[in-house]
Structure to design on (795 residues):
């Protein structure tokens, strides 16, 4: 598409779709006009892919996920269609800067963190490799809350991404299913029938997902809850206007808002409704599509692969059994085996507090038939394994991990270490009974978003050096390995990093009024705030460093800017304390005239996908410092390594694999490994011992305790101090000394710029394996038995 054609298309949409003209148009109008113009280019490849998939009559993959953390869509589409240059030229010919227009788009934040972002990377890779697939989820009216800081404390407000016209979705009133809740189960003539007491309509909204070079496109189908009746006319006529609107409001509540990961008990009932709502709608849709092409439901596993992204859609097991057995009359045992042949399950965490359990009371009242089927499935499993030591139900609760495991033919972890720990801990008993079921699929990230579009400077350099093939064949990055020894390439690589840092520095100055020196090391920790991720270990090190610089202000310190980003679940009190501490420490340290040329701390509020795209390309050091054994994989860690940030990290999650691939000499390792963690926890008074052995740690904790960061309010952070001195379950104190040592090694290494750049280049060169294309191909061959159809789309 030429610049002129694109320009004309934009102007036509501005006029005919938005009803405005160039003199009156706002940035948002231009952005939407551009989006429509780009969307028009997606529709043909999208149709071609759908037709190719229908003609092939092969297997389709269905990715069921409560979360899709997509971020902005326009730039992704422009990049994948190869229209970046035309779009930029077209916009400037209209007097606009493309970047300004692209950044006007609100993030689609329909996810909490790693799990949701992984789903978004997978969708893009599924399209890039040409695998016929659908993503299924919920069209939340409000995504993840917006975060702001008031006096250093997190304040949440609702997010409103759908307020502006949404150019990417197509409403499908014709694709709708009625989803029931509650009611009675009755048997007659040997057939069991569930009669729900209430129901809502699930209506589909489709967003095309276009792969690299527009060769293939899939569909993300999100369900929106609508009432079965729009309003109660009798009540309206009686003058009860609020009452008349009630059925609609109640129904819509189901897709109103994304649940933030949380520890609170409230709203559990609505969450279970959300899970069943989107799972049931998706399964109905899948069966409808299957039956339009085939007639024998026993063939289902040959044509349908359903991936459960965590246990949130685990009710798919009993629901599919119900559809096959109750509705379509397949014998129960056969229905269970058939369902299992379709289903597979990904586990994303071993943290006990995050493993889903539903009380049988709640489940029985909302999903009575499903509860009875779970009992039958459990009984069938017990009968097949008389020596089994586990059950799906315990203390009046259904354990969704066990249910998902028993209803899946494959169960996967998300990194090598995590998968080993799954076998050894939560699923040890089930693993013994089904030794073939668990397998590893190490996570990946899409290079189109996380390198090509987030880091155009690095991308240009890579393409100049080795051609464009790396974009969908990321292991080709190995070809730049020899260039680590090429002084000219190192300089170009350093200049690209430097320019990214300058751009971030001006952003921080403009948006936050913070001034940072691009010469300093940019040390970045961005992820959800959680005790196991140990942002407090990072801030403790900052305090100790600040104290040491203060003792010796004329020392030869390596300047650093520590940047934090991330949200805490609204009900997670301790995580919110950590946020408050980081902001309070930042305030004191940043205003210290003696130390501030060596150490600054910044914590921009409302970290999201778009902010990650700014921060990662500008980072020198990636903080991946979770307690070993607790971070299932991490995916941010991969994005940093690809963009040439060196990692300081523990042997946790995919860090282990990153270190193996980039080389131990190009990775700053510290801390206990997972086995040492377990042993350390058994030592009485481990935290107190660690503090006693390290005066720096003791002094940093004393400063917090004495109110150095809470003037006039000693004891403000006692919850943190006493946690770290006593129970310290996540072993912050025990790992501090080695973390400090590794950080000082980082300081020394950063001063040798040649050596540092060599290491950075090797990180980029050797991280190509972390492309989500590799992950998806591996799911296709090892779990789904699905074939790519790139050649068949003919685009
Ligand atoms: C949150 C707040 C309070 C208590 C528990 C949680 C919580 C912890 C983990 C909720 C959900 C959790 O796991 C879900 C999840 O997002 N897991 C992440 O999945 C990513 C993709 O596989 C991995 O890269 C991350 O390591 C993993 O944490």
């Amino acid at each position: 598409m030429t610049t002129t054609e694109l320009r004309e298309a934009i102007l036509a949409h501005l006029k005919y779709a938005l009803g405005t003209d160039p003199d009156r148009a706002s940035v948002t109008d231009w952005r939407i006009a551009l989006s429509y113009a780009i969307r028009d280019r997606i529709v043909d490849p999208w149709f071609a892919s759908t037709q190719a998939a229908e003609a092939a009559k092969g297997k389709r993959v269905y990715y069921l996920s409560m979360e899709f953390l997509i971020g902005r869509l326009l730039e992704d589409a422009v990049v994948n269609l190869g229209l970046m240059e035309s779009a930029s030229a077209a916009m400037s010919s209209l007097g606009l800067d493309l970047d300004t227009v692209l950044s006007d788009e609100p993030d689609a934040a329909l996810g909490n963190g790693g799990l949701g972002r992984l789903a978004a990377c997978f969708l893009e890779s599924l399209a890039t490799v040409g695998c016929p697939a659908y993503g299924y989820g919920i069209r939340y009216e409000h995504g993840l809350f917006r975060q702001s800081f008031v006096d250093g404390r997190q304040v949440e407000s609702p997010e409103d991404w759908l307020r502006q016209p949404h150019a990417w979705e197509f409403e499908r009133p014709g694709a709708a299913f009625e989803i029931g809740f509650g009611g009675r189960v009755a048997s007659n003539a040997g057939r069991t029938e569930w009669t729900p007491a209430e129901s809502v309509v699930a209506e589909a909204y489709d967003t095309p997902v276009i792969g690299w070079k527009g060769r293939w496109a899939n569909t993300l189908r999100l369900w929106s809850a609508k009432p079965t009746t729009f309003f109660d006319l009798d009540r309206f006529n009686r003058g009860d206007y609020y009452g008349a609107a009630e059925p609609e409001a109640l129904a819509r509540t189901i897709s109103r808002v994304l649940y933030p990961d949380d520890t609170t008990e409230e709203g559990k009932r609505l969450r279970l409704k959300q899970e069943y709502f989107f799972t049931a709608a998706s399964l109905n849709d899948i069966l409808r599509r299957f039956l339009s092409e085939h007639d024998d439901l026993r063939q289902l596993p040959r044509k349908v692969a359903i991936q459960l992204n965590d246990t949130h859609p685990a009710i798919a097991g009993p629901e599919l059994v119900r559809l096959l057995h109750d509705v379509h009359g397949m014998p129960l045992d056969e229905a269970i085996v058939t369902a299992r042949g379709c289903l597979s399950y990904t586990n994303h965490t071993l943290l006990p507090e995050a493993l889903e359990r539903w009380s049988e009371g709640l489940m029985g009242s909302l999903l009575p038939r499903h509860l009875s089927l779970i009992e039958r499935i459990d009984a069938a499993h017990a009968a097949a394994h008389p020596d089994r030591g586990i059950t799906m139900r315990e203390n009046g609760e259904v354990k969704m991990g066990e249910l998902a495991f028993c209803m899946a033919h494959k169960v996967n972890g998300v990194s090598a270490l995590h998968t080993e720990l799954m076998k050894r801990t939560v699923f040890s008993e089930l693993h013994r009974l089904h030794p073939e079921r668990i397998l590893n699929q190490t996570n990946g990230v899409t290079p189109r978003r996380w390198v090509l579009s987030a880091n155009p400077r690095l991308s240009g350099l890579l393409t100049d050096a080795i051609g464009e093939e790396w974009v969908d064949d990321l292991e080709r990055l190995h070809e730049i390995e020899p260039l680590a020894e090429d002084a000219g390439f190192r300089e170009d690589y350093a200049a690209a990093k430097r320019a990214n840092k300058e751009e971030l520095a001006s952003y921080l100055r403009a948006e936050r009024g913070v001034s940072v020196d691009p010469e300093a090391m940019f040390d970045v920790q961005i992820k959800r705030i959680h005790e196991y991720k140990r942002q407090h270990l990072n801030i403790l090190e900052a305090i100790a460093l600040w104290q040491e610089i203060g003792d010796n202000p004329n020392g030869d310190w390596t300047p650093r800017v520590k940047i934090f980003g991330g949200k805490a679940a609204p009900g997670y009190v301790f995580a919110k304390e950590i946020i408050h501490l980081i902001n309070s420490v930042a305030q004191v340290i940043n205003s210290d005239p003696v130390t501030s040329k060596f150490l600054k701390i910044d914590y921009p509020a409302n970290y999201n996908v778009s902010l990650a795209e700014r921060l990662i390309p500008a980072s020198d050091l990636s903080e991946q410092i979770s307690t070993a054994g607790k971070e299932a994989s991490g995916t941010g860690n991969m994005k940093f390594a690809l963009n040439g940030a060196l990692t300081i990290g523990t042997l946790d999650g995919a860090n282990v694999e990153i270190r193996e691939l980039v080389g131990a000499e190009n990775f700053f390792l510290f801390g206990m490994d997972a086995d040492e963690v377990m042993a350390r926890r058994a030592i009485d008074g481990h935290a107190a011992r660690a503090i006693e052995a390290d005066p720096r740690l003791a002094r940093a904790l004393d400063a917090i305790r004495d109110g150095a960061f809470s003037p006039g309010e000693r004891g403000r952070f006692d919850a943190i101090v006493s946690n770290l001195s006593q129970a310290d379950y996540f072993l912050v104190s025990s790992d501090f000394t080695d973390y400090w040592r590794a950080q000082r090694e980082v300081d020394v290494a950063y001063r040798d710029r040649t050596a540092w750049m060599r290491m950075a280049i090797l990180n980029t060169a050797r991280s190509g394996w972390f492309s989500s294309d590799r992950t998806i191909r591996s799911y296709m061959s090892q779990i789904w038995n699905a074939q790519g159809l790139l050649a068949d789309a003919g685009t």
Notes: The radius of gyration is 27 Å. The CA atoms of residues 378 and 391 lie 7 Å apart. The chain has 33 helices and 24 strands.
